[in-house]
Amino acid sequence: SVTPFYERNIQQWHLQIESRFDVVSKKPIAGFVAVNIPELRIQQVFPGQLLPGEGTIAFLINVSKSVPVELWWPSGHGNQPGYNMTTMFIMKEEYKIIKHWKVYFRTVELVEEPIPDSPGLSFYFKINGLPIFMKGSNWIPADSFPGKVNSKMLRLLLQSTVDANMNILRVWGGGLYEQDEFYEICDELGIMIWQDFMFACALYPTNQDYLDSVRAEITHQVWYSLHGNEGYDKLSQRSK
After folding, report:
1. What HEC string does the chain produce?
2. Per its record, what are the GO molecular function terms (predicted)?
3. What's the gap between Cα 156 and its chain centre?
4. Average pLDDT over residues 188-197
5. pLDDT tens-digit profile of 122-172?
6. CATH topology for 135-226?
7. Please, are residues 60 and 15 in contact by the beta-carbon 8 Å criterion?
8. Which of 43, 82, 209, 213 is deepest in the core (most CB within 10 A)?
9. 160 φ, ψ to 5°?
10. Backbone torsions φ then ψ of 52, nearest 5 degrees
11. CA atoms within 13 A on the CB side of 172
């Protein structure tokens, strides 16, 4: 996953990159990770070692202040520029694992502030420091048989969202975690996602084993399904 974040006090963008591996070898595997983002003039190499079992390699890249970064905006508020990024894990035996993705830069802020002469708090989002009026709908599975949902169908439905002047979709918690391409097209079209987790219309246990399972599910889904474009360490704990 790759998570861009902006450090306001020094006015600089960073990329937190994290790769997870499942190593079946009984011995550690040494190698290095190469990251290339041509438009941002980033070409860096990091040494790494994978231990047997499940493991993670994480590192931080600083985007040079001399390189202008174009921001991603919701539909109707600006463009959605993305940067092509390639990462390679190269082992000493010259075996390569290559991953290509798009990186989008944006800041997201949930504003909860006291309302003068009124009980409660405000609840709205700022994207790149600008308050955004969200207009959207619910997204349910596009077909009762997920295997029938192809690229053409996804693009048609998501483009119709933009054509209807919407800029956000709530992925309904009674459905399923969507395929990668769904989120990729949403990024491309400027559609924000309010992601439910799949806990709808039922009573759920509260014992520690179950809560640990839920935490693992949420962490994995935000990290994997949402491509790490937002940090997964700060999740809302409020019920709807």
Report:
1. CEEEEEECCCCEEEEEEEEEEEECCCCCEEEEEEEEEHHHCEEEEEEEEECCEEEEEEEEEECCCCCCCCCCCCCCCCCCCCEEEEEEEEECCCCEEEEEEEECCCCEEEECCECCCCCCECCEEEECCEEECCCEEEECCCCCCHHHCCHHHHHHHHHHHHHCCCCEEEECCCCCCCCHHHHHHHHHHCCEEEECCCCCCCCCCCCHHHHHHHHHHHHHHHHHCCCCCCCCCCCCCCCC
2. beta-mannosidase activity
3. 22
4. 94
5. 999 999 999 999 999 999 999 999 999 999 999 999 999 999 999 999 999
6. Rossmann fold (3.40.50)
7. yes
8. 82
9. -65, -30
10. -55, 140
11. 10
The answer for residues whose C-beta is within 8 angstroms of residue 77's C-beta and 6 or more apart is 127, 130, 132, 167, 190
> Six-digit token pair at 129?
């420091």
Residue 157: both structure tokens together = 């439905």
Domain ranges in the chain? 2-106, 135-226
pLDDT reading at 240 higher than 60: no
- Residue 70: exposed, middle, or buried by beta-carbon count in 10 A (0-12, 13-18, 19+)? middle
Q: Does domain 2-106 have CATH number 2.60.40.10?
A: yes
pTM for this structure?
A: 0.86
pLDDT over threshold 60, residue 1:
yes
Angle value at C-alpha 236, between 162 and 130, nearest 5 degrees: 45
The tokens for 19 are 């790769």
Amino acid of residue 123 = F
Flag whether pLDDT at 227 surpasses 60: no
Nearest to 176 by CA among 132, 145, 207, 204: 145
